Amino acid sequence: MIPVFLRNMFDDKELQEKDIMKSSLDWTIVRPVILTNKKKRGNCRSFTANDTSLQAKISREDVAEFLLNQINNPNHIKKAISISY
Questions:
Q1: Closest Cα partner for 41 from 55, 24, 27, 25?
Q2: Cα–Cα distances in Å, from 24 out to 11, 20, 52, 63?
Q3: Is 50 domain-assigned?
Q4: Is 2 within the bounds of a domain?
Q5: Residue-wise pLDDT tens for the chain (85 aa)?
Q6: Are the C-beta atoms of residues 57 and 33 closer than 8 Å to each other?
Q7: Which domain holds residue 46?
Q8: Does a structural domain hold residue 1?
Q9: 63, 83 in Cβ contact below 8 A?
Q10: Most CB contacts within 10 A, which of 17, 19, 62, 79?
């Protein structure tokens, strides 16, 4: 049901990401799972769609730390990644 009600938002997201991906800039798209207000755990990681060991929630603090760590990390440049624990 959610994709039906949020179809326009998902369409916009796809267009935005395509524009970013066409850019000549160094970029990283980070897609966190469901956000929580819990304290930082410090062990978040990027994952692929086939990874079944991850959790469905992540704290905003861990997402923020992950984003800050990407500033000097070339591992995810020009990639769209998802993050979880």
A1: 55
A2: 23, 9, 33, 25
A3: yes
A4: no
A5: 666 776 777 778 889 999 999 999 999 999 999 999 999 999 888 887 667 777 889 999 999 999 999 999 999 999 999 999 8
A6: yes
A7: 24-84
A8: no
A9: yes
A10: 62
